[in-house]
């Protein structure tokens, strides 16, 4: 086991101190050597960085360059983006419990997600009982597989029809068949392991799946790929979430050890030449050296990454064999608007190499490092959103100075938002504007309610680790109790010493475990100046 652990740790290059995990280590899967061609490209980037620094000291125009100005106009009319005629991801199916209903909010809609075992499918309903508007998500699934409101016991089938009202007399009028007794059922589907819903219950959208489908990635259904998923709630809005994800100049960067050897700064800072190839109502597409990316409005952003090829003993890159499938990894993000100042992220990084790691390491272990990275920007982004709201979303480009090509995707997203949605999400009549106040930092960055309760793997790990903490404390107390209650001549000195030592070790382990649980499942503070 020690040999296996050593092999795994060396292959992943996991740092010994999780608190110092940087973004550049988030996807640092070093399963193969780095080719010399890649090293040379990094050296060229370093030279460009020096040139950029030299040029920046000379007088230049301070007007920011819009990387999308040269794009051809693909829309003859500036048709506005319809936020309520789109598919929205709700949650990964792997994190939904079929035994209970789940409360979720998506683009301002409070919905209840539940498993209809009669139709063997997930359903998305309006989270309000038509009787007295009690939340159906607080109800239960009864013995006949119906969704039951816990307030007065009304029951609904998978189509939203009311099937039973306990208070209605059996010989009276069939009030449960009235249209007003039904609950709104939204079109929904499961694709790529994610539950999607269409936020419109008009009859014309009943068969919308046959006309328009959610974005599809064949890699997520390919058995040769591993695709562990994760989800996270954030205390900042959808716009800030997408900005953060499409900004590669601060992102986690693969092959960070190579970049560090070239003495770039620890965030991987260097000029990044990004070109926006297309921008229209459906999103935008970008290319840069080493990959391409695409934003598919309103929620999906992905980036394709090709890991380096192997290197021969002479230092030259080997050509991949035609019989060996090309190594490939995708970074797929689903950015979900929840409400003003709230968003949800579902992400997965499918890859067709190093698949054995995910078979032996539980999903929650990877989430520890991923949450560490996601939290590192959380407070900054929350404050940033409030400052943007102060100047007004329409004044974003006046307030922010974005002169380099590394900001091309951020500028493209803001241009898309301005052109097709008047600089902000259309919430309908649900919200009047304004952001929720800033809570204390410990509450703002709490991981338990933003991730653990919504993740099946982390939830099980959290319960197991807490149970282990209690077991260690009990063992410590029992060991001391045995020593105290037993006469001195009954136990030998060696046995008494061993029991005392075990009690001390169990107590120390329980204290360490309590700290580990709190720091990884509740709150982890950041002081970037000391990291």
UniProtKB/TrEMBL annotation:
Q: Which organism is it from?
A: Manihot esculenta
Taxonomically, the superkingdom here is Eukaryota
The protein's matches in PROSITE patterns, at most eight in alphabetical order, are given as: RIESKE
Chain segments carrying region Disordered? 55-74
Q: Which GO terms describe its molecular function?
A: 2 iron, 2 sulfur cluster binding; chlorophyllide a oxygenase activity; metal ion binding; oxidoreductase activity
GO cellular component: a single term: cytoplasm
Which segments cross the bilayer? Answer: 465-486, 498-518
> Entry's InterPro entries?
Cholesterol_7-desaturase, PaO, Rieske_2Fe-2S, Rieske_2Fe-2S_sf
Family matches, as SUPFAM superfamilies: Bet v1-like, ISP domain
* Keywords from the UniProt entry: 2Fe-2S, Chloroplast, Iron, Iron-sulfur, Membrane, Metal-binding, Plastid, Transit peptide, Transmembrane, Transmembrane helix
Q: What is this protein called?
A: Rieske domain-containing protein
Domain annotation Rieske: ranges: 87-197
Protein location: Plastid, Chloroplast
